[in-house]
Specification:
Helix content is about 65%, strand content about 5%. The protein is mainly α.
């Protein structure tokens, strides 16, 4: 049976992938944005792998097993291991900033069309057809 802790990395990756898909959809599938987002998503996880493989080899040599408590102890954790969080954090901040920018753009559209229902603005904001003729 898989524990929750084993699922955490895959849940985080799925969340980041969904965030990437959402931002690409918000920007109407602009090709350059799609390439930049997916490349930064992949790069962030490749950077984690590049940090963790040598760390795993180093830590594996220094692990001490305590049979009395059935746990393994590490004498020290490498100081650079926390850098593994920088890539995904930078990616998520970038994606969230793009989402906030699009939210402010949509808010400006909403303020300029005060008589337009919000559903029409969300669904048809990039079309030239008047919103009242779509309903």
């Amino acid at each position: 049976m898989t524990s929750y802790l084993e699922l955490c990395p895959s849940i985080a990756e799925a969340h980041s992938a969904m965030l990437c898909l959402r931002v690409v959809a918000l920007y109407d599938h602009v090709n350059w944005l799609r390439v930049v987002l997916w490349a930064s998503f992949i790069f962030s996880y490749v950077a984690i792998l590049a940090l963790l493989v040598p760390t795993y080899k180093m830590v594996q040599k220094s692990v001490t097993y305590l049979p009395l408590t059935n746990i393994c102890l590490l004498p020290d954790i490498p100081s650079y291991i926390y850098a593994a969080y920088l890539g995904p954090t930078a990616f998520e901040v970038f994606a969230i900033v793009l989402t906030v920018i699009k939210a402010f753009e949509n808010a400006a559209i909403l303020r300029s069309r005060s008589d337009t229902p919000i559903v029409c603005i969300l669904l048809y904001s990039h079309s030239s057809v008047p919103s009242h003729s779509r309903l």
